[in-house]
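Amino Acid Chain and Its Fold in Token Form
===========================================
Scope: a single protein chain, as residues and as a discrete description of its fold.
Amino acid sequence: labelled as such and written in the usual single-letter residue code.
Position: the record begins directly beneath this header, with no further notes in between.
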Amino acid sequence: MKKLVLIVTTLLITVAAFAETKSFKEIVPAEYVAELEKSGMVRLIHENGNDNGRYLMPENEYGDTVRNLIVAKKPGNYPFICESLYLINKKKYAKKTDVSQMNIQAVSEAVRSISKMQGMTYYSTTRKKRLVLYKSAYTLEDGNSKARTNDRNTGNPDGTKNWLLFDDASFGEIRYELDYKQNEDTFYMGYQNIDDVKVLFMKPVTARNLLVQALFIDCGDDYLVYIVSDVDCMKVPGMKNQIEESFVSRMDALSEWLADQF
């Protein structure tokens, strides 16, 4: 009798676990499902300082965090918000990892392995080829120095902070502060620049005016990745196009890099 109760309990827990995993079609805004299923990616760009976007964001526990955390836009500056939604099919991209092991913890550990982002590449639309995006990438001891430490990529990071440094091909060395949240099927990462973004002798994006938020959601057969870049940039000749190309390519690069980790 005890064995029967144990078997039934185990089956109920298993069924409940599967029931909680929603298909991407159930949580993506309905008007974008067909395009996402067909192309594997949907993108919206907002250049109106009064429009904070977040229209592509799927239903998730951390939606209020993503909506409420925004970069204030100064009058006269160039406001830029880009949203991208990616669909990563697990069977299609699994090379080193068994599909059964591709859960939200696997994504969390991969994305927190900052040092592995060194050498990440992106496609340059101006030079028409792939280039190295981050010449160097590593986790910092804290936000007050550039002292390197080991990646903090184990366990559940829900509610914790982290710091990193990217030596960016376009913008040089920039430190970022990160916030993590994680539940059973979703990993949230938000990062904001501690240092000014420099281009030649200019600082078009000052500290705390570059915010990237990413949601990684386990949808059973697929990972759903939502990234929103939110920037307030000084109006400098030629900077508008550079900002748009730079952040669009960086969002694509992160999604591509993640898919390659499995």
Observations:
- Confidence is low (pLDDT under 50) at residues 1-19.
